[in-house]
Amino acid sequence: MSMDANPDERPSAVATARQAFVAAVVVIAVVVTALALWKLRVVLALLLFAFTIAAAMRPGVDRLAGWRVPRAVAVLLHYLVFLGLVALFLSFVVPTLSTQVQHALHTAQTAHSTSHGSSLKERILNAIGKHLQHLPKTGTLVSNGLTIGEKALKALAGIFFTFAVAAYWIFERDRTVDLVASLMPRPRRKKLRDTWTLVDQKLGSFIRGEIILIAFVSVLASVAFVLVGEPYWLLIGISAGIFEIVPVVGPLVAVVVAVGAGLTASWHTAALAGIALLAIRLVEDYLVTPRVLGGAVGLPPLLTLVSVSVTGVLLGSFYVLLSIPLAALVATIVDVVVRGIDPAEVEVPTVLFPAQDAE
After folding, report:
1. 39 and 138 Cβ atoms separated by less than 8 Å
2. CA nearest 201: which of 325, 27, 334, 65?
């Protein structure tokens, strides 16, 4: 018997080896890309933050530009308003929050002075108080500029990078989209531009709507808690607003926290605090949310909740704020590419400003 009896086996073996080699290269490339993205996750997160901020500001900048205000001045005005709100928050809200947290922490430590270790409530209040104490006061950055630590410098650099990229993206988005579209076949260029515009509109509407909802719930809840005698009314009121970021679970957590804090005073206070939050929730669900937020990102509550949970577990609490914008980006791409939806036909709630760049 000759060894060359099956001449087809050698080409088949070579083809199999080639396929295995290509598969191995693809796997290695995917792993390397994933590791690179993981190492660059902070930069990518800051970029997504910047794009989201730009999307939220763009309609306002376009409106001011329609009134013959230069776009650079319009962006600067947005940033000045933001800095003014931060200064007001640091000047008037943070001191009251710090006082309430320190009082609550003292109460928790006194109540558990005979127990071993610290309670969950004490640990939470300790963490909140620590963060509030480290928040900068107005004028601190100027008077103590030479004593800013390394972490503060990194934070300032990240903030500057984010807002600089946001301003750049407002001015250069269309050129960037045109550049990317020029690399694609001509029939697909319009769909790419429409998809990019749709994502931008969804992110902007969502951010503006969420800011309105958080402010609405925080103010009403804080006022209601003052009226019913809720302990730590400002702390719990602002927390109830922030919990609005997480659908379904967030409002339930807010009710539990408000009722639990109210029980430290009396059951009447706890009941009134819970009823107040439920009333605010009903007003929000039936009057505010449909008119303000609507279907800004087009995500069902379950998908939003899963996105928030997965992002928090895999990347950490800092990245939770990016979970919904990222989910909206992925969902929009899936709708356009997989489901064949025409992005030019999708309507997005305006939320304060109409989308002037939608065509």
Report:
1. no
2. 325
What 3-state class would DSSP assign to 341?
Answer: coil
Amino acid sitting at position 27:
V
Where the chain has pLDDT below 50, the residues are: 1-2, 114-115, 117, 135, 138-148, 355, 357-359
State whether residue 89 is helix, strand or coil: helix
Q: What six digits make up the tokens of 54?
A: 């730009």
What count of other Cβ atoms lies within 10 Å of the Cβ of residue 220? 20
Q: Where are the alpha helices (DSSP H) in 183-300?
A: 186-228, 233-242, 249-263, 267-283, 289-292
Half-sphere exposure (Cβ direction) of 249: Cα atoms closer than 13 Å: 10
CB neighbour list of residue 206: distance below 8 Å, 6 or more residues apart: 293, 296, 297, 324, 325, 328
Amino acid identity of 41?
R
Q: Residue 43 carries which DSSP code? A: H
Identify how many contiguous H helices and E strands the chain contains and give both numbers: 14, 0
- What's the pTM value of the predicted model, to 2 decimals? 0.68
63 class by beta-carbon count within 10 Å (0-12 exposed, 13-18 middle, 19+ buried)? middle
Q: How many CB atoms lie within 10 A of CB 34?
A: 10
Closest CA to 165 of 330, 37, 48: 48
**CB neighbourhood size of 126 (10 A):** 15
pLDDT tens readout for residues 132-162: 555 455 444 444 444 445 666 777 788 888 8
